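Standup notes, structure subgroup. Blocker cleared on the zinc ion input:
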Amino acid sequence: MSAQGLLDFPYYADPLADGCFKQEAITCEVCEQRREWAYTGGLYAANEPDSLCPWCVADGSAAARFEGTFQDVYFSETASTESRSAVLERTPRVVLWNPVHWPDHCGECCTYLGTLDPSAQPQLAAQESIQWEARDLARSISATWTAEDLLDCAVRGTMTLHLFRCRNCETYSLSLDGT
Ligand SMILES: [Zn+2]
Ligand SMILES: [Zn+2]
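Run returned:
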């Protein structure tokens, strides 16, 4: 039995792979159940809990109990209120260097897929929607920058690119982060 098999995080594709959970016997502070899995990410709250289970992250009860949020991100006005709440209150924390923009598409927040490494994932990086996104982000930095310049920075590790995908039409989005 894996946490991944039991839980669906619609806005985070593979939190287990990113180390958001570990196999450890805990008593969750919210549901008070003995669990075999612990949530290892944080919760932004006045009193941060020591032990949370993945299930209380997923159903929003941990965020509600501690009046906290899991992410340090910002949204566009085009992202639905419901999807923003799901990202903030029912999605394991995405590890970031700086607060980043959580992209949305088709009116909803996108699903986080992880960091993009163009050298390890060349076919993915060559996708048209990723190239478009990289071009837009590059131009937001400098008028002379191209998509390639930006992707090179991600390869060299001078910038981090977070990859997202629309839940509806599967278009990719990128978000720029530091290192
Ligand atoms: Zn729990
Ligand atoms: Zn879409």
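Discussed briefly. The beta strands are 21-27, 34-39, 73-74, 100-101, 104-105, 108-109, 111-115, 160-165, 172-177.
Next: hand off to the docking folks.
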